Design the sequence.
């Protein structure tokens, strides 16, 4: 019986990928509990497991005291020293009390308690696996859906894709394969809970890391991402080596690399721009595809006023302000866009106001 039990433990550890020490600790706790229950004992006991010899032994543990109040838990110093003269007060005296039919008891205890510990250990393994996949892309299969979530089969666990994080215009059927971005992993009483997204900016970033070897190798860096999922996105890229074209690397030959990302995102438009530490250059790039005449920077307010040609104003602002909004998120600067004629009118008005003020001041002096 003992040999079969140990073999079963080893097989279980291999199949479930669980540390053997975790299983043996579980078995140890189960056997202590089973011994006390089956033999109505309140004695402190220790179980010794030896997988090499396939043996299990139970030892009672009693504390050495001056005056014994409970014989099951304590032993007098005199009696202890009859066993071994070296015993002193507060030492623990152990004595083997292994029952003859302990193998049967062990099997019953192992079945009940170890099963629970194995389930907990499995959950821990799964949780650790998916914590390592946080902020990463994973491929799953749509299993089912309700009003709140699409449930995605991710192998050992079911991922939850909130319906408000499905890209606009996307629809899925059961068994469809889908790439999702892992946003959160929780360890709950019901097991690991994995939450995923299709709208998160991180999905766009990871897709470029997959498609562009220069990004994966660290030659090109993605500095920032702003995204309105399903419609349009902007990313800024930078390379320390001046001979490397970071935008060209992301676009790829004949636009193949960026097109692969666009296809995965169902036609979402993607602007790839050069990053710069100079806010004037960076914001001009971020407002692509519009042209920029000038960028006036207010460092204190962390705000800018961008002047564009009259015929470029609507392009710079974008539909419902989208281009300006994405550029502001990308750069982290407030952006106010004005046409060239509007800026000139304001300059003229300011100049006129200044002349009037000067004339009033002269009159007052007179």
Sequence:
């Amino acid at each position: 019986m003992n040999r079969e039990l140990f073999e079963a433990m080893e097989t279980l550890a291999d199949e479930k990928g669980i540390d053997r020490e975790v299983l043996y600790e579980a078995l140890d706790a189960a056997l202590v509990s089973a011994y006390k229950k089956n033999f109505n004992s309140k004695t402190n006991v220790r179980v010794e497991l030896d997988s090499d010899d396939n043996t299990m032994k139970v030892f009672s543990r009693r504390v050495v005291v001056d005056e014994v109040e409970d014989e099951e838990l304590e032993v007098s110093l005199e009696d202890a020293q009859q066993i071994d003269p070296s015993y002193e007060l507060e030492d623990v005296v152990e004595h083997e009390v292994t029952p003859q039919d302990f193998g049967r008891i062990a099997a019953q205890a192992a079945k009940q308690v170890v099963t629970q510990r194995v389930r907990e250990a499995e959950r821990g393994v799964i949780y650790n696996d998916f914590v390592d996949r946080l902020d990463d892309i994973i491929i799953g299969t749509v299993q089912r859906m309700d009003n709140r979530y699409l449930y995605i089969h991710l192998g050992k666990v079911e991922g939850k894709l909130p319906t408000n994080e499905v890209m606009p215009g996307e629809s899925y059927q059961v068994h469809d394969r889908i790439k999702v971005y892992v946003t959160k992993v929780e360890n709950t009483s019901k097991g690991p809970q994995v939450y995923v997204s299709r709208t998160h900016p991180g999905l766009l970033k990871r897709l470029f890391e997959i498609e562009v070897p220069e990004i994966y190798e660290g030659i090109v860096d993605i500095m920032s991402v702003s995204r309105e999922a399903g419609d349009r996105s902007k990313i800024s890229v930078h390379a320390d080596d001046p001979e490397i074209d970071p935008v060209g690397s992301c676009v790829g030959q004949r636009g193949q690399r960026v097109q692969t990302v666009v296809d995965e995102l169902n036609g979402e438009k993607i602007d790839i721009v050069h990053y710069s530490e100079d806010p004037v250059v960076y914001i001009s790039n971020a407002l692509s595809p519009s042209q920029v005449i000038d960028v006036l920077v207010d460092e204190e307010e962390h705000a800018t006023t961008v002047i564009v040609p009259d015929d470029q104003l609507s392009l710079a602002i974008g539909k419902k302000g989208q281009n300006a909004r994405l550029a502001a998120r990308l750069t982290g600067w407030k952006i106010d866009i004005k046409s060239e004629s509007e800026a000139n009118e304001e300059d003229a008005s300011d100049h006129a106001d200044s002349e009037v003020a000067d004339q009033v001041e002269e009159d007052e002096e007179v």
User: Anything to note?
Assistant: The longest strand covers residues 177-188. Confidence is low (pLDDT under 50) at residues 351-357. The radius of gyration is 36 Å.
